[in-house]
Design a protein that fits this description.
Layout: E1 6-17, E2 20-31, E3 35-39, H1 46-54, E4 61-66, E5 69-70, H2 76-81, E6 84-87, H3 99-105, H4 114-127, H5 129-133, H6 144-156, E7 162-166, H7 174-189, E8 193-197, H8 201-206, E9 210-215, E10 218-224, H9 225-230, H10 232-238
Parallel strand pairs: 3-8, 3-9, 6-7, 7-8
Antiparallel strand pairs: 1-2, 1-4, 4-5, 9-10
């Protein structure tokens, strides 16, 4: 961790889908330089939490602050401009566009000029050589692992201060999962704070400074990643005993 300064503060947010309350007053904080995991069963409210932070869902109540300023209710592109970027569940790449066009889309809110964008593209190519080999290829023809690399890279092109990752290992082969988690650690080492939603609780907690366990729209447990990994209840419920 580089700093203990609070970057993101989520306080008592509630989100409804019709009459169903998906989030029932979730509160947590993310400090600069941390990797924080939200773990829990399918339907617990983890992805809904990320979507609320990104502005894709509007909370019915509660507060979301980024760098001390409220972002609750802001339009998603304005939240992106502040440095909050998401790599969505299911990757959400533009299948009919080329790899390069997808990466350029990631920089659409930036106003710092082509030279800076070109510099970041080179950085991406260093991190993901496979993408450099496939720049002109249609994104929809990439393998699952390559599509995940592209989704993360597209978010990085927006120069995130915090990167929200929603199920980055979903549907990937074990060796690709290891590679994706190694890349997440590298991104964090380079100064990007990460909020991670992940079904693979073992892998997530191993690389996390802290974790929060979400059950039916509430946070029921929190602790250091290493402590949650060795917690008997967490092991039984989420880590396969």
């Amino acid at each position: 961790m580089t700093d203990s300064k609070t970057l993101l503060s989520v306080r008592d947010i509630r989100v409804k889908y019709g009459n169903i309350e998906a989030l029932k007053g979730i509160s947590f904080e993310v400090s600069e330089g941390e990797v924080i995991s939200l773990i829990g069963a399918n339907g617990a409210g983890k992805s809904t939490t990320l979507r609320a932070i990104s502005g894709l869902l509007k909370p019915v109540s509660g507060q979301i602050e980024f760098q001390g300023t409220s972002i609750a209710g802001l339009k998603p592109h304005l939240i992106v401009r502040r440095g909050v970027l998401q790599s969505p569940e299911g990757r959400g790449i533009f299948a009919n566009l080329s790899v390069l066009e997808n990466l350029e889309m990631g920089a659409f809110t930036r106003s710092d000029g082509r030279a800076e964008i070109a510099k970041d593209l080179e950085k991406i190519y260093g991190m993901f050589p496979r993408l450099k080999e496939r720049l002109k290829q249609q994104a929809g023809t990439l393998s699952g692992g390559e599509q995940q690399m592209l989704a993360i890279s597209r978010a990085l092109m927006g120069r995130p201060k915090i990167l929200l990752l929603d199920e980055p290992s979903l549907g990937l082969a074990p060796q690709i999962v290891d590679k994706i988690f190694a890349i997440i650690e590298q991104i964090n080492r380079e100064g990007v704070t990460i909020l991670l939603v992940e079904q693979n609780a073992n892998q997530a907690l191993r690389i996390s400074h802290r974790g929060y366990v979400v059950e039916t729209g509430k946070i029921v447990l929190t602790g250091k990643g290493s402590d949650l990994l060795s917690d008997e209840k967490v092991r039984e419920a989420y880590l396969g005993g």
